Amino acid sequence: MTRLPLEDEFADVLKKAQRGTGVSIDALARATGLDASEINDWANGRGHPGDDEARAMAVPLRLDPSKFADAAATRWHPDGIELPDVRHHPQSPHPSNGYVFFLTGTMRAALVDPAGIPANLLRVLREGAYHLEYILITHKHADHCDATGAIAKAFPDAKIVMHQADVAAIGSLAEKALRVKDGEELPFGGDAQVRMLHTPGHTDGSSSYLFHSTVFTGDTLFAGSVGGAYGDASTYEDILNSVKTKLFTLPDDTVLMPGHGPPSRIGWEKEHNPFF
Questions:
Q1: How many other CB atoms are found less than 10 A from the CB of residue 261?
Q2: SS3 assignment, position 191
Q3: How far is CA 201 from CA 19, 183, 188, 232, in A?
Q4: Left (φ > 0), alpha (ψ -120 to 50) or beta: where does 83 sit?
């Protein structure tokens, strides 16, 4: 199994925390006594701080000092995870993850985030001989939904599912989309359901989808990091709150399938993610 690199390196975590908290490099230097030019180097991927330096920076950035030091030293990467009812595919040419999950036996399936070259997605769906019931979109950015039209045309009976706040991104297809709300469950054959969790912050309509003990989080939560705050109304604080109140309340063994980077588990993120 190919081991995907973490979506965010130490420099990315540092810059996201700076943007989110509004703490500039100069302010960080004043708060810690560290040299501003060194912090600037670290923020741009040139070297990394030692444990004591990382711990000092974590405090004004409102990060966990021990986890931030581990990120600086690249001491953690999630173990590999493979699930029998989930298939991952890269969304070429985008650097994003797409997924198909399905009910073994019936092959009733849902596609998470239709993006990239449509022919690649159609090949995945046809090779699996899936009965596509849902097209689940986590948020409005093109690298997660720009192939929606092609997939909807090829599978006209599949229901497009998206939050109201982001649905305009799929153009005229918005008219037929199911605009699900937080906590709403979609029937998925037999006794199975797919539950939508509204997890705003990255975008206003960012959503995560829970199937059995697997949650597809889009760009809200990554292994070892969180998404950037690009909402019109929602904020960095909303991302953190979404993770704490919606995702971290799931069982620790829940598998996390993010929009970028490798899979993880909710318990591992509680233990290792420096934002919490």
A1: 21
A2: coil
A3: 13, 17, 28, 9
A4: beta
**Letter string b/e over residues 61-81, b meaning 16 or more CB atoms within 10 A of that residue's CB:** bebbbebbbbbbeeebbbeeb
AA letter at 74 = T
Contact 219, 260 (CB under 8 A): yes
CB 9 within 8 A of CB 77: no
Q: Read off the tokens for 115.
A: 């993006």
- CATH class of the 10-72 domain in this structure: mainly alpha
CA–CA separation, 202 and 215 (whole Å): 17
CATH number for the region 86-272 comes to 3.60.15.10
Give the pTM. Answer: 0.97
In angstroms, the CA 201 to CA 258 distance is 15
The ranges assigned to domains in the chain are 10-72, 86-272
Rg (the chain; Cα; Å): 19
Rounded Cα gap, residues 22 and 43, in angstroms: 14
Q: Along the 276 residues of the chain, how does pLDDT read in single tens digits? A: 567 899 999 999 999 999 999 999 999 999 999 999 999 999 999 999 999 999 999 999 999 999 999 999 999 999 999 999 999 999 999 999 999 999 988 889 999 999 999 999 999 999 999 999 999 999 999 999 999 999 999 999 999 999 999 999 999 999 999 999 999 999 998 789 999 999 999 999 999 999 999 999 999 999 999 999 999 999 999 999 999 999 999 999 999 999 999 999 999 999 999 999
